[in-house]
Each structure stands twice: as structure tokens, then as C-alpha cells.
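Newbie here. two chains, one complex. Structure please?
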Amino acid sequence: MARPKNDTFLRALLRQPVDYTPVWLMRQAGRYLPEYCETRKRAGSFLSLCKNPRLACEVTLQPLARYNLDAAILFSDILTVPDAMGLGLYFAEGEGPKFERPLREEWAIRDLAAPDPHAHLRYVMDAVSEIRRALDGTVPLIGFSGSPFTLACYMVEGGGSEDFRTVKTMLFDRPDLLHRILDVTARAVADYLNAQIESGAQAVMIFDTWGGALPGWAYQEFSLAYLRRIVDELIRERDGERVPVIAFTKGGGQWLESIAAIGVDAVGLDWTTDLGEARRRIGDRVALQGNLDPVALFASPEGVARETRRVLESFGAHGPHSGHVFNLGHGISQFTPPERVSVLVDTVHQFSRRFHGGAPAPAGSD
Amino acid sequence: MARPKNDTFLRALLRQPVDYTPVWLMRQAGRYLPEYCETRKRAGSFLSLCKNPRLACEVTLQPLARYNLDAAILFSDILTVPDAMGLGLYFAEGEGPKFERPLREEWAIRDLAAPDPHAHLRYVMDAVSEIRRALDGTVPLIGFSGSPFTLACYMVEGGGSEDFRTVKTMLFDRPDLLHRILDVTARAVADYLNAQIESGAQAVMIFDTWGGALPGWAYQEFSLAYLRRIVDELIRERDGERVPVIAFTKGGGQWLESIAAIGVDAVGLDWTTDLGEARRRIGDRVALQGNLDPVALFASPEGVARETRRVLESFGAHGPHSGHVFNLGHGISQFTPPERVSVLVDTVHQFSRRFHGGAPAPAGSD
């Protein structure tokens, strides 16, 4: 397994020189694409789509057919892991994910066990292998998982929540129980990501969607500590190639230094954090990924191009050991006009060249 | 108008020595109190309650009758200002605030004008006067307003929003129109707060609930710049007493230094920011207000006491020019058990004494 023909994404994550800034988008295979909606309809439901390797492969490739993206990301859902733990994932129409058996009783928490990903999440591994075959060495494939705290939010709440009252009450009153859930879930996530790497994922990303809802001290103890443990256990080299790891805590802008210190190759940033400021804070240790406001894709084509350039400018001229992967600061909205994504991708590729190659960027030019 | 008998809150905001840390809670007069629900039922609706000075005074005083709070805050809604601008505020059952006439057309934005608060928001000024009379010099009364950007979010979206797509699209495509709205709204907010001060408010707070949803550069340009303009125009002394100003941007933890630089006396913090860290960053310039996670009030009484102590400990021992006002990091939840608030208030008053008076706090004691 050699490097893909286009390895710009992997090089940027490893802070190696590149000619332009690579780009992919969180949730790039999704509902804003009519062809995705068509495949999903054929699958019958979102969950059947996730569990069908052939269709998961099909939707993974759809955005790459439309746009000149520098990476593919496995199509799946972060809640497949708790589903494999037996919680009974389902999607109520218009209500988001739910669990039939939320984790609240002490006995159920004591009984919780990490699933064998090769057995209980076989469909994910099959999708990874199938996507790798279909990509045929063009661009790298990203595997992913939710963070233990983010998964625990859904597992304890039984679905989405506005204030995470149930899981936070457990945190305050029975931290031992929450730690038990996080401990098992961290084991499960490490095994799951390693299985994805063994099946062909060339980089992995951990999505900590809800860690930013915690007080700072609790973020360290209940989210970041488990991210660190996972990173420690990941396969970091496969077939002679480094497998980069990206950690993304939405709302984690206050904690960048501590996120950069857990051993990851790159840190994802939401759209509130200034990239230049983040680079000054942690850019000598990790690559940065992000961070256009997803809502900027609702602007006019000129507006999309301007806001895309603004993100590239905020990172600034690259040095010999800087790394930036362009992305949104959160998943793309289902209501995004698909043609705006072309503007974004083309602007990144064209405009970013001036920031690479060692020549200083002409001030104010575009 | 002398200082109130209990001026601990005002002294803490001005970073003057106090014997204990004063406490009040955002949304302390609200739905978690059965007596509030009873008065609201009598008023007929939330909006009738806001617009009836006698009943607004009644609910303002209710939490003070239950708890040993160090300040009262005017009972009102941040959307009274756009309502007075003619947008037609209403509350759809279970849906939150809505406007009959959202601000989207260029002609309507050009026609927007700041209302005379003494005429169009007379009911608020009457409530302020009535509350001051009823308080009878016991504790100070806080006046408040929403920030221009936060008000603009509701005005342009026509209600609440998950992603602020309409107002942000205006920001990206027609920043001139959004600046026009913010300009008029900043004028309206400054007039409104000054009228509250003239009617008897002894401190004022500006709630920037949605500024934290912006990219950093846009926060500076579209939210903070207008906060600064308002602060510049506020009456800062009344009857020989300083009128302190508090600014609170939810999700603004990354931008504390710039918030502290706009001329406010105090900066409000949400629960994600570590108070000790905030103190190191800006505590030499402003007082800090916050920041217990509102969800901590769902913990057991022991848990509430422990988390309350944790916040006090994170601020640490007071010096001669430090200021801390205890509060939640966001408004109290309507589902909060009222008896938990007693635990919080009593813990603040008792446990905080060791941090004042110059004596170092005994390590680890409680």
C-alpha cells in the first residue's frame, strides 16, 4: 500500500511541504447532495445506508465525483459504536438519533463492554475496504469515531440534548459511573479506530462534538483524558506509512494547548477560533484543520470565495514545518447549495498556492 | 439616593473590598419558581407580565423573598427593544419568541429607528421605579439589555435559530445592511439603558447571548464594536455613585482580553471558562461575574455545595483590588429544583468568607 497519488492531505497533517492547501469537508457525503438523498432513499433509511458497505462506499465517493477534494471520509455515524454495545440505535423521523436502552442504571453500566469491531462492526470494516478499493490510490481515506464523552452524552441522555442534564448530573453526583462508561467507551473507540486502520483507513479523526459543553476542569477529566488514552493506543504506522490522528473538540478554542499536547498530529478548529492565533498558540507542535463557518456557504459565490480566502489568509504564509488542512468549522449544512462547494474547493486550491513554497504572500492580493 | 444597605454586589463590581462574595442568578425570577408561574398565569401571558409594571415588580422580588440574594434584576425580556421598534414581538406556545415583521428588506432596514425609551418602553421605566421603591434600599437593582448583535439575530431571523443562517448570510453578503441595523440598535440600547439608570437601575448588564456564534473577526466587527459604543455612551455616575457596567458574551472565553478592553467594570463568564485563568488574563482590569454550570443545580445538595465551592476556589483568595460576583454561567433552567438554589446561595455566603479579608485560604478546607 503506497501513498495515494494525491497525498497532499497526509503531507499537510504531517507538516511536510505541499504546493497548495488540501481541502475536505466534514459531512461532505450528506443530505445537501441530491445523489446522496437518492441513494439514501434506495437504502430505506439512514441506518440501513450506514450498515450497507456497498451503498456506504457509493455515498462516500459522491462528493469526490463532484468536487476536487483531497480526501475521502468513511460514510458512517458516530453512534454505530454504542449501537454495537447493545443500546439499540434508531432514528425517529425528524428527531435525530435515539437509543432504545439509554444507559442509566448502575447494573447496566457495570455490564457495559467494548464490542469486537471485527465482529460487531464488520459492516464498517467492509465499507472501509470497499472504499479503499474504489478509491484506487487516488486520495487518502479518513476513518473516524466520536469521542468517548460525546458518545456518553448520547448513551446516557438516550439521544440529543439541549443541556445534557442527565449526563452532567451523573458527572456531578456519580463521577465513578461516568468514568466507568468512558473507560469502556475509550477501549471500544481505540479498538474501532485500529480496526479501521487495519482495514485501510490512512488517517483517523476523533469528533468531540460535545466536550465544549463542559466546564474547563471537567473537559480535562471527562473528555480530554480519554482522548489521550485513545491516541496512546492507536496504530500510528501501517505499511511503513505514518497514520495521522486529528482531534476536534467543537467549542474547544480555550483549550487548544492541552488538546495539542495529547499526542495528535493535528487539531481541528471550529469557526470561532482565529487560525492565525491558533497557529501562534500550537502551530509549532501540530497541524491545524479548519475552519470556515459552514454558514458562509449560504453567501453569494463572491462571498464564499472571499470568506475562503479570509481563512487562508488568517493562517498566513507557510513555513517549512507548518500544516493546514482546509475544512469547515463544523459539518456542512443539509441546506447548502451544492454549487457553492465548488467555489470553496477551487478557491482553496488556487488561492492557497501563494502561501506555499516559501515565497512570502503578497499583501492584500487575491 | 444613597447606596443600598447591602452594597456588596456594587463593591465587588468596582473591585472594592467585601467580606464575602455576593451572588445573584441570571433569570433568577423565572419559571423554576412556582410563585412566578402563578403570577404569570394571572398576567395571562409572558408578554403581558413584562408589560405590567406592578406584576413585573412582583416577580422581580420573588427570588429575594426566598433566597438571600445580593442583587435584584429587573424582570423583562431582551426583545422589548425590537418590539418598540415596531417588529411585533409575540410568543408562540412552546416555540419561543417570534417577530411578526422580521427585518430583511432593505427599505425596512433603512426605515429602522431607535425608539424613545421614555415613550415606547415606558412600562419598563415604570417597573424600574416601582421595583426601586419596593426594594426600599435593601439590595441594588440591575437593569439590562440584549447586545445589538444578539437583538439583530432575532430581528433578522424572526425568532430563534439553530445556525443563524439568515443573519449570517446578511453579514457575509450585505454587511452594510447589518451594520445599519446594529448602528440603530446600539443607539436604541444605549438610550434604553440610560433611561433605566435614570429610572433607578444601579448597575447595568448587556447580554450578548449569540456573539459567541461568530468567527473571531466577525465578533470584533459586528458584536464587540457595538458593545464598546454603547459603553462609551452610558451614564456612568448617578447621584454621586458609580453605575457599574457588566458585559457578558456567552461563548466568549477566547476573547476575554478584548471584552475587558471596552471600558466595562465587569465581564460575565459562561461555565466553560476557568475563573482562575480568566482572573490571570483580565482580573487586573475588571471584576468577573460567573460561572457555575446551571446544570450543576440538578445535582444532589452535596453536589451543588461542592460545585459552588469549586467555583469560589477557582477564583481563589482575593487581593485588595479583585472582584468576583458569583452567578451561573447562563440563565437558570426552568426545571431547577428551587431548594437547590438555597444551597448555592448559602454556600457562596459561608464558604467565600475565607477568600476575603486578606487572610490566605486554608488549602483544601471547606
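Moderator note: Chain B is about 45% helix and 10% strand. Chain B has a mean pLDDT of 96. Thread marked as resolved.
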